[in-house]
Prior knowledge:
This protein has one domain (7-84, 149-241): 3-Layer(aba) Sandwich (Rossmann fold). The protein is 34% helix and 24% strand. The protein has helices spanning 44-52, 91-95, 97-101, 108-117, 133-146, 163-176, 189-195, 224-241; strands at residues 7-15, 18-28, 33-38, 59-66, 76-79, 151-155, 181-185, 198-203, 206-210. Helix 4 (108-117) runs antiparallel to helix 5 (133-146), helix 5 (133-146) runs parallel beside helix 6 (163-176) and helix 7 crosses helix 8 (224-241).
Amino acid sequence: MTPAPDLTISGQAHINGATLFAPLTLTLAAGQWTCLLGGSGVGKTTILRLIAGLDTGARFSGHITASDGQPVAERVAYMAQDDLLLPWDTVAQNVTLGARLRGETPDLARRDRLIARMRLQDHLTKKPAELSGGQRQRVALARTLMEDRPIVLLDEPFSALDARTRADMQDLAAEALQGRTVLLVTHDPAEAARLGQTITVMTPQGLIPCAPPHAPAPRNVDDLETLETQGALLRLLREDAA
């Protein structure tokens, strides 16, 4: 993997003439997790899709740049809230989907290492319908890592999981994505407080930074400073909704 760059998105977006988000500048620190929170409809997912070079339905005026001056979209891996696994493919086939779609020969040794890292080696030949929700998300994470991109975009990937599985997936993702520039969009103040090295709340008026806890991520769920950060984020979100 090439070194992860800083990434900056600066500008504003409109849909059908209405403002989706006001002028803003969001910088993702190289090799760190940035967590972006905010109410529904403020444009969080639009920012993810703009960085990934995907269609948004919005008109964006601004720029997206990497600190090394290289193109951004082609260096991005994207993990959505839904696992988006192909139901007719096995675990092994789903993990190598990107390479197969590009007509490339998958690196099977790398595939097997990632599957083992996700503790899925006993499920190689299973179809998604045979897996639990947590196992499906681990397949999706392995597929994201299989792309080996320095920039990783996560759109609420763990929100549908139960609390214990969600915490396990957060720990696994934090370990697996070390050294990458990560943007996590989440509605969950507890998730942002556990994982964020930079934490920002997005509002219709702009971005509000929130100081992260000092402990390294992923932080203990009962860490006092982490709980205080969770509370501060919840207050910001409630004030924005009021």
